[in-house]
């Protein structure tokens, strides 16, 4: 499937305010590697990518009605490492920015399903997941889960937000899912 998306190169370091405002309020602070920079500004290693696209959507659209982006980014979470859950991980994602979040959500979901189906991965879709980040419209996103992974079975999270829609795939967890199903990428 041709997504017609531009590549976005994401920074590893960003202001905390973006993630506090877009990705869940003060609860996200507990998951961030947060610290002040030399001038005392609140910074963090990025815990996820969608909030960056939300914040920069007008700039990224650059006068266009809609635009799509893909990225591969290192993300960081301050939490206890365990099977399938790491402090540093790689997120592969797709974001479709524009005036119709519902259409962007359907495009994102179709692209994600096509990618996972192309790998031969067996997964369960929860099209109305209520866990996760608060920026999804109505607090509702979608998830792809691989039961063989146990407690850390979510491989994909995505949904629609005011500026568009998208999804993120944890590559390390995807690799574990493929191995658990004996699939050679």
UniProtKB/TrEMBL annotation:
Signal peptide start and end residues: none
Highest taxon above the source species: Bacteria
Stretches that traverse the bilayer: none
Alphabetized Pfam families for the sequence: tRNA-synt_His (PF13393)
Keywords: Glycosyltransferase, Transferase
Gene Ontology MF annotations: glycosyltransferase activity
Keyword Glycosyltransferase: yes
PANTHER family, alphabetized: HISTIDINE--TRNA LIGASE, MITOCHONDRIAL-RELATED, HISTIDYL-TRNA SYNTHETASE
This protein's name: ATP phosphoribosyltransferase regulatory subunit
Organism: Chromobacterium subtsugae
Lineage, broadest ranks: Bacteria, Pseudomonadati, Pseudomonadota, Betaproteobacteria, Neisseriales
């Amino acid at each position: 499937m041709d997504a017609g998306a531009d590549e976005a190169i994401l920074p590893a370091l960003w202001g905390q305010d973006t993630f506090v405002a877009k990705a869940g309020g003060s609860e996200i602070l507990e998951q961030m590697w947060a610290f002040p920079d030399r001038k005392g500004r609140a910074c963090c290693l990025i815990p996820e990518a969608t909030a960056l696209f939300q914040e920069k959507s007008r700039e990224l659209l650059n006068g266009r009605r809609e635009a799509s982006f893909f990225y591969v980014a290192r993300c960081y979470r301050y939490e206890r490492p365990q099977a399938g859950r790491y402090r540093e991980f790689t997120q592969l994602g797709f974001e479709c920015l524009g005036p119709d979040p519902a259409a962007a959500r359907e495009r994102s979901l179709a692209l994600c399903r096509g990618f996972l189906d192309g790998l031969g991965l067996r997964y369960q879709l929860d099209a109305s997941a209520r866990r996760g980040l608060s920026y999804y419209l109505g607090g509702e996103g979608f998830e792809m889960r691989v039961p063989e992974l146990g407690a850390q079975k979510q491989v994909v999270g995505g949904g629609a937000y005011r500026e568009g829609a998208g999804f993120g795939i944890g590559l390390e967890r995807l690799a574990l899912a493929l191995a658990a199903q004996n699939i050679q990428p």
